[in-house]
Fold this sequence. Notes:
Helices cover about 70% and strands about 10% of the residues. It has a 3-stranded antiparallel β-sheet with strand order 1-3-2. Helix 1 packs across helix 5, helix 2 packs across helix 5 and helix 3 packs across helix 4.
Amino acid sequence: MWLTEDEQRAWRAYLRAQTMLAVQLSRQLQADSGLSLPEYEVLVHLSEAPEGRLRPFQLGSDLGWEQSRMSHQLSRMARRGFVSREECPGDARGALVVLTAAGRDAIRSAAPGHAAAVRRLVFDPLDAAQCAAFGSVFEAMIAAEDPAGP
């Protein structure tokens, strides 16, 4: 029932690393581009979507966010001009979240600094074997929770 000593040590290290990464990456994004980490996450997903468009429920599902969080985040980002909402063709009740030119500029501007921070914080401290294990560990966890995959 309880975690072993090794499991407890690993779990606590993970929690500390997760918190440290979120803080450091948030600071880097804010300082370099004026974006929050949630804004960056939304912009990444939209920039990788066909034509920069996604249904709000799909974006929320991809990010693991509740509907209310997604709605508030999109409203804030629309006020900043990063996204707009459009009617969904073929579904009069549906909507699409669309990446605007300003949103595309924001992600293009923020991505290099963010990637450098991820490299510095996550991958630079690891050797090749640790890097491979790092990816394998998270892939195994994802597969166990969602066998259908992403």
